[in-house]
């Protein structure tokens, strides 16, 4: 078995920055679909993470609000589900979006370069997850074919999403209006993962954003029947490291 090579992306230009136009045509014949498939690395998931992935890959699932502390693998599981759907041909495109809000405690100030340069660091979380799950050559093919894309949440206004998987990350930094804007873009055969850690909001003036309100609003049986689910991870689900689990538990008591 060939050794996996981690993809190192040198610039933001290597990942597609979309405005919602130019969907990739999808041909349903089996030979074409086989060419478009690729291997997605299956990680060592916990029992609860497997439950989340099963829910995410369920064809009846349309939206998942997933909340939990840092280190519970919310984003990588959502990207994993999106890549699995992309490889199997269930969706045409995987899109990663998040708020462009800076830290409330420190601002970056002026950043040199063009738009690609300025937004390079914005895309690092998504690139990091791709590198963990897909081989370098496959990532480049996906980028070239415009099957993966990423942009700030503000760019979603006016779009209509069909045949897509959307990973909406860092939702604790988005207002209720922004999240509703994203949700109202959903079209046919589209699935949205909304990931948040309410302990790490960067919104100013004590604003907690709109995620928790919507998480609570859709945590009912009727929403579940419609394919909308709320999924919560706790301190016990932190997998990044044991020291992080200890730190988060201590900090939450401050």
Tag the structure with descriptive keywords.
254 residues; Rossmann fold; six-stranded parallel sheet
| CATH level-four homologous superfamily name | P-loop containing nucleotide triphosphate hydrolases
Straight-line N-to-C gap: 48 Å
Number of DSSP strand runs: 6
CATH domain class: Alpha Beta
Task: Write up what this structure looks like.
It is built from 10 helices and 6 strands. It is α/β, with parallel strands linked by helices and 254 residues long. The protein has a single domain, classed as Rossmann fold, CATH 3.40.50. The protein has a 6-stranded parallel beta sheet, with helices on both faces.
């Amino acid at each position: 078995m060939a050794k996996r090579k981690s993809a190192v992306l040198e610039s933001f230009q290597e990942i597609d920055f979309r405005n919602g136009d130019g969907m990739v045509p999808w041909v349903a014949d089996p030979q074409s679909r086989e060419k478009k498939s690729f291997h997605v690395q299956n990680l060592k998931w916990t029992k609860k993470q497997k439950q989340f992935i099963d829910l995410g890959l369920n064809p009846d699932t349309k939206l998942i609000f997933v909340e939990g502390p840092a280190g519970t693998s919310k984003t990588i599981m959502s990207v994993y589900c999106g890549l699995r759907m992309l490889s199997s041909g269930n969706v045409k495109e995987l899109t990663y979006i998040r708020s462009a809000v800076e830290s409330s405690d420190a601002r970056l100030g002026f950043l040199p370069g063009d738009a690609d340069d300025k937004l390079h660091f914005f895309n690092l979380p998504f690139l990091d997850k791709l590198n963990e799950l897909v081989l370098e050559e496959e990532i480049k093919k996906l980028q070239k074919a415009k099957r993966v894309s990423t942009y700030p949440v503000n760019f979603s206004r006016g779009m209509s999403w069909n045949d897509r998987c959307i990973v909406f990350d860092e939702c604790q930094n988005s207002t209720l209006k922004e999240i509703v804007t994203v949700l109202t873009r959903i079209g046919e055969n589209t699935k949205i993962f909304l990931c948040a850690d309410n302990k790490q909001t960067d919104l100013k003036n004590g604003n907690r954003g709109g995620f928790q309100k919507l998480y609570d609003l859709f945590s009912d049986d009727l929403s579940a029947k419609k394919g909308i689910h709320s999924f919560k991870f706790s301190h016990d689900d932190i997998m990044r490291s044991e020291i992080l689990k200890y730190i988060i538990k201590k900090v939450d008591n401050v």
